[in-house]
Amino acid sequence: MSRWWPDAVVLTLGEGADALADVERRLDAAGLPARARVRVAVDSGLLRWAIVPWHPSLLRPSAREALARHVFRSVHGDVAQGWAVCCAAPRYGAGLLAGAMDAGLLSGLRERLAARQLRLAGVAPAFTVAFDRVCPSMVAPLFWFVLHEPRWTTLLLMERREPRLIKRMPTVPDLGRCLDREWLALGMDGARCPVHVHAAADAVPLDAGEWAMETV
After folding, report:
1. pLDDT per residue as tens digits for the range 60-74
2. In the beta sheet, which residues pair with residue 100?
3. Can you give the pLDDT at residue 1?
4. CA 199, CA 216: separation in Å to the nearest integer?
5. Percentage of the chain lying above the pLDDT 70 cut
6. Domains of the chain
7. Are 178 and 172 in contact (CB under 8 A)?
8. What is the largest CA-CA distance in the chain?
């Protein structure tokens, strides 16, 4: 969703009331020189997701954000007005993913970097960073991509390069049951599709049941 710079220091913005204080501690410990570039991966617990249906105006950046904001407000109400929204790059004729996080948190992050004369090279959800790394190798017309973290698991069903469903849920070991539930809710009656899982090192083991799971 954001440009991901390969030559910048990487930090994770995690959950919790002291998330920004934790960033400050890590920046101080790193001892970065002035104007060093920092890229930030946003923890899944700080994000909300939506799929923005295709509309020709999605080709314009300002319209993409406006449509995404409308989708978030329609689901979450007025609280979404205080969210910063980012959208995936559009593909003609296809809906796209949009993510949202608290705008005040993003502003606080920028202020703390500026106070140390550091440059923010990019902000992106940890989910999309993981997905972008493995997406080129996924050739099946229908597949699940799963980001499995200690506290949260995010499911994305892609169909012909278009997002069909995205859902964040508290992490449970029974992944297969979760996928079965979502599969039935979508009315899918075909054979189970591949499941690609990117798991954090400290996440609990997953049981994919009858789904063919590959760790990526």
Report:
1. 999 999 999 999 999
2. 48, 85
3. 35
4. 8
5. 96
6. 1-133 (3.30.420.380), 138-216 (3.30.420.40)
7. yes
8. 56
